[in-house]
Amino acid sequence: MSENETKNPRLSIKAAFLDEITADIPALNYDRDDWDAEFAEMKKAGIEHAVMIRSGFGKFISYPSKVLMKKCGCFEPPEDLPAMFLELAEKHGLKFWFGTYFSGNDWLEESYDVNRESDLMNEVNDEFYERVGKHSSAFGGWYFSQEISTSVSHRVLDCYCKMGEHCQELTPGLPRLISPGFPAHKTKSPYQMSVKEFTEDWDGIFGKISKAVDIVAFQDGHCLLNELEDYLGSAAALAEKHDLKLWTNLESFDRDVEGAFPPIRWEKLYYKMKIAEKVGVNEAITFDFAHFFSPLNGNVAAGNLLKKYLKYKNR
Length: 315
Prior knowledge:
Elements: H1 3-7, E1 12-18, H2 32-44, E2 49-52, E3 56-57, E4 60-61, H3 66-72, H4 81-92, E5 95-99, H5 114-131, E6 139-143, H6 154-170, E7 176-178, H7 195-209, E8 215-219, H8 225-241, E9 245-249, H9 266-278, E10 283-286, H10 289-292, H11 300-314
Parallel strand pairs: 1-2, 1-10, 2-5, 5-6, 6-7, 7-8, 8-9, 9-10
Antiparallel strand pairs: 3-4
Helix pairs in contact: 2-4, 5-6, 7-8, 8-9
């Protein structure tokens, strides 16, 4: 091991998102046996945390929530995914994190009601916890599903604070995770920022939410490879300043290929890992294992990506 690797430990993917209430990628349509095999593959790959990216999106929900069916007219689903994921997490020795409900309401609109949204999400969190969460030794944390990139999303920051306080009271000590985007030049957002602007903006954001969240994992695919070090390095310094833990969201899909996102080219993933290591970030969550990393999903590129990652990780 080189002197640099001794100072900056090799990055390890410790967590993976579970995305089956999908928004912009195809559904897997897995049954219990498929997910059982998938959890076994995650465990073999060194993954310790399975993070549900959202418990519902609009009318589609991951379990028969009485709250959401009554208050939002959501469709009753044929399965109870959180309960199944908890059972499989227990079986395979992983921790399951519950992702909050996303109504689909646009938080940039003046009509967005922070109290209504956060109260609804907290009520769903309570429902999940009372139904299955508190009965399982595998329940390991909360994921706040709203993805932001700048303080223009100040209403979401208010929701983070309300949800974070509520989750801390409900489950003292369990970690709370967010995965924002970088407002970098690769994103098509009109709110692009220089590294200096990003640093100033997120210094204020972290100052506001540092008691509401514990872990922040920025989506690394929003940066060009030649600018990722500057943005991620700034985020690392800010996280240390505000006593937050920083992971990287090591995206295992390729944003550069038009159409449906394919598994990322290994060289790109490798460079992103080396950059994270260089700035002192050595833990990652990936979006997501089952779609883009798994040897079980039928895409040979995904299984090959996992083989290359494990060869790098274990050498």
